[in-house]
């Protein structure tokens, strides 16, 4: 008869759950102290990608065996599966990745920002609640049915070398995929460069744009351009009476601009990222009739066009 070994984890000894809770607390403290280095990375990785899932597995399977199925005939037969430490680790890593990714996706879609505080709160809540449930459920089982780890190693290993290798590969693959997934959720998308382009009346009110002018009567508009290009960018503003004007002669925004049919006028300027250009432009049109003044902004990537219908008497 084989002697029973010393119990490391078992009835009255939920040290596995205590350890994962301590890992979570250690990761939280290292984050608060803003400690950098391999130790913090390793502890944080275990806290996020192992501890929550392991606690959930322990809460779901508090005993040595799990009931797979049970017949309903008079002679009832149960099909049981051993849930050992290796299975708990594999399931724990997979569940951690799934649960943390799901929780992160839910809370970061218009509820909270995805940052260290949110991840830490999720990890602590899931791990501690699941660990408490696991301890309660274990204690409700007979001592011999509770999950336990002893120092006595069986003469025949429960897993072959091939099975151990496959388990290690699965764990490594899940960890890599988990890191990629969380980094993807945490990454802030890089916005595409763009420019803001607007035209209003001289007082900044769009309802005060000129509508009716006499021939060669000055009209006043305020043109605003804001750069979101990420770097210094060159802009060309063209004023024309044609929708698709060719390159026109240059004009000075501080001087009155004459815009005639077939004679577009252009102004070139540079803006840094976040910089704003604003100018009140005085213009005249020396041709009567129903006209449309087109303002075309070319930032090198996109051409934006605004238009102003005018009646020239």
In short:
This protein is of the alpha+beta class and about 325 residues long. The protein is built from six helices and 14 strands. A hairpin with a 4-residue loop joins strand 13 (about 290-300) and strand 14.
Straight-line N-to-C gap? 114 Å
Spatial arrangement of strands, main beta sheet: 6-14-13-8-11-9
Strand content: 25-35%
Query: Which runs of at least 5 residues are low in confidence (pLDDT < 50)?
Result: none
Q: Calculate Rg over CA atoms.
A: 35 Å
Classify the oligomer: single chain
Q: How many distinct helices? A: 6
Please state the overall shape, judged from the principal axes of the Cα atoms. rod-shaped
Supply the helix-strand structural class: alpha+beta
The biggest beta sheet reads: 6 strands, mixed
Order of helices and strands: EHHHEEHHEHEEEEEEEEEE
How many structural domains does the protein architecture include?
Answer: 2
Mean pLDDT: 80
Instruction: Tell me roughly what share of residues is in helical segments.
Output: 25-40%
The tally of beta strands, per DSSP, is: 14
Q: Keyphrases for this structure?
A:
4-stranded mixed sheet, alpha+beta, single chain, 6 helices, 36% helix, rod-shaped, 313 residues, 2 domains, Immunoglobulin-like, 14 strands, 6-stranded mixed sheet
Give a description of the structure.
This protein has about 325 residues and is an alpha+beta fold. The protein folds into two domains: about 5-185, no CATH class; about 195-310, Immunoglobulins (Immunoglobulin-like). The protein contains six helices and 14 strands. The chain has a six-stranded mixed β-sheet with strand order 6-14-13-8-11-9, with no helix packed on it. A four-stranded mixed β-sheet has the order 5-7-12-10, with no helix packed on it. A two-stranded antiparallel sheet has the order 1-4. Helix 1 packs antiparallel against helix 3. The N and C termini lie far apart (about 115 Å).
């Amino acid at each position: 008869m084989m002697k029973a070994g010393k119990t490391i984890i078992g009835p009255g000894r939920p040290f596995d759950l205590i350890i994962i809770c301590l890992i979570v607390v250690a990761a939280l403290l290292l984050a608060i102290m803003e400690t950098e280095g391999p130790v913090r990375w390793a502890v944080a990785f275990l806290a996020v990608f192992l501890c929550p899932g392991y606690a959930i597995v322990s809460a779901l399977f508090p005993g040595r065996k799990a009931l797979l199925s049970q017949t309903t005939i008079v002679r009832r037969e149960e099909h049981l599966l051993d849930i050992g430490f290796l299975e708990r680790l594999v399931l724990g890593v997979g569940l951690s990745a799934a649960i943390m990714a799901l929780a992160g996706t839910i809370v970061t879609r218009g509820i909270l920002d995805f940052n260290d505080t949110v991840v830490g709160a999720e990890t602590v809540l899931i791990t501690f609640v699941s660990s408490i449930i696991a301890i309660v459920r274990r204690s409700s089982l007979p001592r011999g049915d509770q999950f336990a780890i002893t120092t006595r190693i069986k003469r025949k290993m429960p897993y072959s070398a091939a099975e151990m290798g496959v388990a290690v590969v699965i764990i490594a693959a899940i960890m890599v995929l988990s890191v990629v997934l969380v980094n993807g959720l945490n990454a802030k998308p890089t916005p595409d460069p763009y420019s803001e382009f607007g035209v209003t009346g001289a007082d900044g009110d769009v309802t005060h744009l000129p509508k009716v002018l006499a021939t060669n009567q000055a009209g006043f508009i305020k043109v605003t351009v804001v750069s979101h290009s990420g770097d210094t960018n060159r802009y060309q503003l063209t004023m024309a009476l044609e929708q698709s004007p060719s390159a026109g002669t240059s004009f000075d925004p501080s001087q009155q601009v004459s815009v005639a049919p077939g004679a577009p006028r252009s102004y070139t300027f540079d803006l840094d990222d976040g910089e704003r250009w604003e100018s009140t432009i005085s213009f005249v049109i020396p041709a009567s009739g129903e006209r449309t003044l087109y303002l075309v902004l070319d930032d090198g990537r996109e051409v934006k066009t605004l238009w102003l219908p005018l009646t020239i008497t």
